[in-house]
Design a protein that fits this description.
Keywords: Membrane, Transmembrane, Transmembrane helix, Transport. Belongs to the major facilitator superfamily. Phosphate:H(+) symporter (TC 2.A.1.9) family. This is Major facilitator superfamily (MFS) profile domain-containing protein. GO terms for molecular function: transmembrane transporter activity. This protein is mostly helical. It has a single domain, classed as MFS general substrate transporter like domains (Growth Hormone, Chain: A), CATH 1.20.1250.20. Helices cover 69% and strands 0% of the residues. It contains 19 helices and no strands. α4 runs antiparallel to α13, α12 packs across α13 and α14 packs parallel to α16.
Length: 483
């Protein structure tokens, strides 16, 4: 790793000519002040953090554009599919089908995107999902009649198959490229906190503007995020050739048996993903946690608004209020709570705490008996939102620097697989227990089942043990070493 600029080499006539000369600490730094190693390290860390500012702005604008339309989508869907009704099974099934199809495509695309980002750079791969996400919003900016809605629905489904979740994991991979392991968990939390902040501002904006203006502003901000990213975000600095210099003992994908006869030798395969899971017990456990926790979250997302609309006749404004509280809780959780507690409790314990409270707040949603209860359940989420950033940080420390895209893409691909399974399980349950044909009266039964899935993830998190981080190295595909 390069020395901080404030670490000076001793002056000497022979040091410039000797390539093996070791740096020594000078009594004064570059400004002429007495040398202070602690201040030097802190200055280096601030430089690294400040270097991520364009990524933070890009992520904020992208999520702002996407989140501000969420409160309005439920009402738009209900008005297009079941006008004048407060309960609509068709709308629930449409939402569930969209999530399942999206998950199916993402399961295939996300690991591929991770591999390609390791090869061609994070910025190149970020361009595609940010660009594509603009088009569905533009459709609803023009109109929200039944025909416009179904055009949006089809286009949004196909685009989400290729881009859902990719901005998140590519941003995490970008951070992993540029931030040392000691600071990575905190920066992951800050990254997620920025996304939560955009969630707050996006939903706050939707709370006070009309539905038509919501989609128009969203499209404009989406275009701004694309232009900003292309003009100002530098390409990530990935260390491409370290394997030739460092040990390859912990290059996890190289431990997998070589594959023969593949046409596209640099492309990921199911064997690559399985090889990654087999060679790291920690990542294998993280994959199980990812699946069950994401299945719970997707089930909640798919059913909560319809549950609240059927039970308490919530509309766009109440949905926005809930989401604003959730976003504020997420921002506090990841910008304040996580950076303060993680150095003392460790990522494993923070992960378990987050998963437990994820279970608790879902159970409270499911038994909501008054309109104020969902707001209380949302406040509890302040202790659950940092679970996934902690999990991704744990995974990143088991992987060499040029495997970050592959590993984060693998985790996102598992999230996408959960997106397939979760709607198939929870959407029918939600529709059934909100209808008059329910076998017993429990409108929140589908949400309760999602909470049980989060409990499975919590139990699995208790089994993760501390393991040494991966030795710095780069993975070269085992395909290229055929005899």
């Amino acid at each position: 790793m390069a020395l901080p600029s404030c670490w000076m080499t001793a002056a000497g006539s022979d040091s410039d000519d000797d390539d093996d000369a070791q740096p020594t600490r000078a009594p004064f730094d570059e400004s002429g002040e007495p040398f202070d190693l602690q201040k030097c390290v802190e200055r280096k860390e601030m430089e690294e953090f400040f270097g991520l500012r364009h990524l933070f702005v890009t992520v904020f604008l992208y999520y702002f554009a996407n989140y501000m339309v969420v409160p309005a989508i439920t009402d738009v869907t209900m008005a297009a599919v079941c006008p004048g009704k407060h309960e609509c099974s068709q709308a629930i099934y449409l939402t569930g089908a969209q999530q399942a199809i999206t998950g199916l495509g993402s399961t295939i695309v996300m690991p591929l995107a991770g591999y390609l980002s390791d090869t061609y750079g994070r910025k190149v791969l970020l361009t595609l999902p940010i660009t594509l996400s603009i088009f569905p919003t533009v459709i609803l900016a023009f109109g929200r009649t039944t025909y416009f809605f179904y055009a949006y629905y089809v286009l949004r489904t196909f685009i989400a198959m290729a881009g859902e979740g990719s901005v998140q994991f590519l941003a995490f991979a970008y951070v992993s490229d540029n931030v040392p392991e000691s600071n990575r968990a905190a920066v992951f939390g800050i990254m997620s906190g920025i996304a939560s902040s955009s969630y707050v501002f996006g939903n706050f904006s939707a709370r006070f503007i009309s539905t038509s203006a919501t989609f128009q502003v969203s499209a404009a901000v989406g275009i701004l995020s694309l232009v900003y990213m292309r003009l100002l975000l530098p390409e990530s600095m990935m260390n491409i050739n370290r394997c030739s210099e460092e040990t390859e003992d912990e290059c996890l994908l190289e431990k997998a048996p070589p594959k023969k006869g593949q046409m596209f030798k640099t492309m990921p395969s199911v064997d690559d993903v399985l090889g990654l899971l087999r060679t790291s017990p920690t990542i294998a456990k993280a994959a199980v946690i990812t699946f069950f926790n994401n299945a719970a979250d997707v089930g909640l997302t798919a059913s909560l608004n319809y549950f609240l609309k059927a039970q308490f006749h919530f509309n766009k404004n109440q949905f926005a209020d809930i989401m604003i509280i959730s976003g504020i809780a997420g921002s506090i959780s990841q910008l304040i709570v996580m950076p303060l507690l993680t150095p003392h409790l460790g990522e494993r314990h923070m992960l378990s705490i987050g998963l437990f409270f994820n279970f608790a707040h879902m159970v409270l949603y499911s038994i909501a008996w008054a309109p104020w209860v969902p707001y209380a359940a949302t406040v509890i989420s302040i202790l659950s939102i940092f679970a996934m950033p902690c999990l991704r940080s744990i995974v990143s420390k088991q992987i060499g620097p040029n495997e970050q895209g592959k590993a984060q893409g693998c985790i996102t691909g598992i999230c996408s697989f959960a997106n397939i399974v979760s709607p198939l399980a929870f959407s029918p349950l939600t529709a059934l227990f909100l209808s008059n044909d329910a076998p017993f009266y429990f409108p929140g039964f589908g949400i309760m089942c999602g909470g049980l899935s989060a409990m499975v993830a919590f139990i699995q998190s208790m089994m993760i043990r501390d393991t040494p981080p991966a030795t710095t190295c780069t993975v070269e595909n085992s395909d290229t070493s055929e005899p």
